[in-house]
Write a structure and sequence with these properties.
Elements lengths: L25 H33 L5 H32 L5 E3 L2 E7 L2 E6 L8 E4 L15 E6 L3 E5 L6 E6 L6 H5 L3 H9 L15
Antiparallel strand pairs: 1-5, 2-3, 3-4, 4-7, 5-6, 6-7
Helix pairs in contact: 1-2
Length: 211
């Protein structure tokens, strides 16, 4: 259960979900994001690889710098691919550990490139969430203000799917240290569940997945 439940909090009434009560097909959303990550890699990664191999096997000395560019370009694209896949995998772990529930509306607090600062209506002003698109897309997903399908536990974080656009977001509390006591007092079962979902520890949101 999420930490917000059972505290006697009086807030906005739950928003009627725009889709079925069972939530979206998160497996389909995950497949789509995995496919998008590999398509991004294929657009440039294989081109850099081909240039690198062509220069290497041709043995033409004056093309050496071109070969270096091809090698470095391929390596960086592999790193970007790994970063995107890792973020999607984090979301997958959450979806396979927690049920999806509709949460909304959402207040847009701030945005820093691909990092989104937002707040659920039932959290209170102190509980901002930091969210990141696994594909490093910049800007607010269309329709996010109405709410999202969320899976997780507020003091630990979670993952969400934006209805309509199907955008995937990984989330954790922005003020991670302020929720340390809540995580500590959450109980053994909730902490074990958070470990299984890979949200028991703070992640580094600044690890980008490329542009």
């Amino acid at each position: 259960m999420n930490d917000r439940k059972g505290e006697g909090h009086v807030g906005p009434q739950p928003v009627q979900p725009p889709h079925g009560s069972d939530g979206p097909d998160f497996r389909g959303v995950l497949r789509h994001h995995y496919a998008s990550a590999f398509k991004r890699f294929a657009r440039l990664g294989f081109i850099f690889l081909a240039v690198w191999l062509l220069v290497y096997y041709s043995g033409i000395d004056y093309l050496f710098l071109l070969g270096v560019v091809g090698c470095l370009g391929f390596i960086f694209n592999v790193i970007f691919l790994w970063s995107r896949v890792l973020w999607i995998l984090k979301c997958s772990r959450v979806f396979h550990t927690y049920p999806l529930e509709f949460r909304g509306p959402i207040t847009k607090v701030n945005r820093d490139r691909e990092l989104l600062f937002l707040r659920f209506a039932d959290q209170g002003n102190e509980a901002n969430m930091l969210a990141k698109s696994p594909l490093a897309r910049q800007g607010w997903p269309e329709g996010i203000s109405d709410g999202v399908w969320f899976a997780g536990d507020d003091p630990f974080g979670g993952a969400a799917i934006v209805p309509g656009s199907g955008e995937l977001l990984f989330m954790q509390p922005n003020a991670w240290k302020l929720f340390a006591e809540k995580r500590k007092n959450a109980g053994e079962e909730r902490n074990k569940r958070a470990w299984r979902a890979w949200i028991r520890w703070r992640v580094t949101f600044r690890l980008r997945g490329g542009t």
